[in-house]
Amino acid sequence: MTPIQETIITKKTTNKPIWLMRQAGRYLPEFRKIRKLNSNFINLCLN
């Protein structure tokens, strides 16, 4: 079973899986403003 599957069924895990919804806000004005300030996706995540 993958860490995400274990998390979904609320099983205690040592890892903390994360997942990104990259396209979730692509067209929102707020997202576009923030995106303009960051040259790439990694910078967007880190800032």
Class computed from helices, strands and strand pairing: mainly alpha
N-end to C-end Cα span: 32 Å
| Rg (CA only) | 15 Å
β-strand percent reads under 5%
Question: Which residues sit in consecutive blocks of at least 5 with pLDDT less than 50?
Answer: none
- Total count of strands: 0
Helix content: 40-55%
Count of domain modules: 1
Task: Categorize the overall geometry.
Answer: elongated
Helical run tally: 3
Sheet having the most strands: none
InterPro entries: UROD/MetE-like_sf (IPR038071), Uroporphyrinogen_deCOase (IPR000257)
GO biological process, one term: porphyrin-containing compound biosynthetic process
Pfam families: URO-D
GO molecular function: uroporphyrinogen decarboxylase activity
Describe the structure.
45% of the residues lie in helices and 0% in strands. The chain is mainly alpha-helical and 47 residues long. It has one domain (3-46). The termini are far apart.
Question: Quick summary of this structure?
Answer:
This protein is an all-alpha fold and 47 residues long. The chain is built from three helices and no strands.
